[in-house]
Amino acid sequence: MTTYIVLLRGINVGGHNIVKMHDLRIALENIGFGQVKTYIQSGNIVLHSNENDNKVKSQIEQEINKVFGFSVPVIVRTKLEWEEIIEKCPYPVSSLPEGESVHLALLEKEPTEESSNYLYEFKSDTEECYIQGKDVYLHLRQSFSKSKLPNYIQKLHVPITIRNWKTIMKLSEMTKTINT
After folding, report:
1. Whole-model pTM above 0.70?
2. What is the tens place of the pLDDT at every residue in 50-85?
3. Is there a contact between 104 and 136 (Cβ–Cβ < 8 Å)?
């Protein structure tokens, strides 16, 4: 069994694509996923499966469409990948000054070199990023809502979802509570 972290993009935002986490857990358990746990209402899931990550992604996308009646991008990482994400964070998450934050943009696939270079052009005194494979670390020295970098990431032309570092760490903790 592999432990996966699954992130849904664009659910329960502004009254659109409403998914109750209880209903989502039941739907995923009904198609064979084990030890399904969710965190907050924005589509953060930890679960077990014998399938590979592509199959997990496909099964979840199909089930959400079938049960809830709409499509959403699904990003999947293994527990090992998640641990590497945390380990490789280039920013001092434990000692950030007041008002600064670190977020992680998780991409479905690696961006092209051209897209990566485009993103790096937007480094400024208030925000910067570091791209590691399918993950983009964001160091924001102002509020997320005032930052421009998250909007530019959307222009990488790959499915993406962004989570704050607190959520990243909470999901890591949740993987440790699942029996392997």
Report:
1. yes
2. 999 999 999 999 999 999 999 999 999 999 999 999
3. yes
